[in-house]
Amino acid sequence: MVNTPLANRPILLRGDGINYLDLREPVRLLQDLLKRAGALPASELSDGRFGPATEAAVKRFQSQNGLIADGVVGRDTWTVLERVNPNQPPRRQAVLRLLDGISYPDLQSQVKTLQDLLKQAGVLAASELSDGKFGLITEAAVRRFQASKGLIVDGIVGQQTWSLLWNGPVEAYFPYSTLINQFNLDRIVASIPYPDMHPFARQAIPLILRECDAGRVTDRGQIAYIFATAEHESRLGQWMEEFASGWDYEGRRDLGNTQAGDGPRYKGRGYVQITGRLNYTDWSRRLGIDLVGSPQRAAEPPIAARILVVGMRDGTFTGYKLSDYISGTRRNFPSARRIVNGLDRASLIAAIAEEYYRVLQTP
């Protein structure tokens, strides 16, 4: 096997070694490493041609080891290939939570592993399908397991939960952490002029950044406006359910409130305060969670963060979306209020967004 220093390894993808003959030796090395890891059958020829079989093996290896399964062999894939021990199961697992594998299919293989381990631990029924979708049944099983082991019962599968499930050391990682690492959380929180909001901001901002990262929302102006909207609507999680009773929404057909009690049942919740049976039904469909039957779940921070980011990105609230007003050097913060609620308090929210943008631009 050719011993090429990791720093000199090229990025490889399908067609290399076929269209670009100078890459045949790196592709042969890749194929040998995939065989050692058990991702490529030993009977396959290491011919230095990155074809469909090699690509499928790469995706299989990436999926099994918590990498993005895109079939492209970059530095992260090379690194894990180098250190893999074919005699032991993978021990690098993503931090998982409710909705993973549903909204983000890249995590389905990780969730399947979780579900299989929960079955082995006796907290998830053997009859349940290991479908790679982290729904309410999987979350309940995680909570049962955490309670049985004396862990914090939060339904989030992190380092300790994974280690006890595997009964051995596990390297846990955040699957969407690029944006979080780019920004200084302390600086963002310190820029908020209300000290009583700071504890809520410390929880909300990483969650929102994670959803921005997962949803490919990387424009700093858009991120700033998302923060500003969450601050205005819910004080970044301090008010996750509106104070009013909701009876003012009773009978509002434009909100889908057609049944007795719909007004208070579907009053505003979450970082962006979604309101009305129509919105709760729409987000139940989008997220695969029954928010119609359990509307209070819209106030749970991980769910609320996904609704906030995806809703503003895709224009689900009013038909207007972030890119209609904010992209690159174009930052029409005042008009962007239409994404959520007409032009109500548009100037105030625009000023908040400008401050967030200034902080996000600071090295």
UniProtKB/TrEMBL annotation:
Name under which the protein is recorded: Peptidoglycan binding-like domain-containing protein
Gene3D superfamilies according to UniProt: 1.10.530.10, PGBD-like superfamily/PGBD
Any one Pfam family match given in the protein's UniProt record, by short name: PG_binding_1
Originating organism: Desertifilum tharense IPPAS B-1220
Entry superkingdom: Bacteria
Chain ranges of the Peptidoglycan binding-like domain: 25-81, 109-165
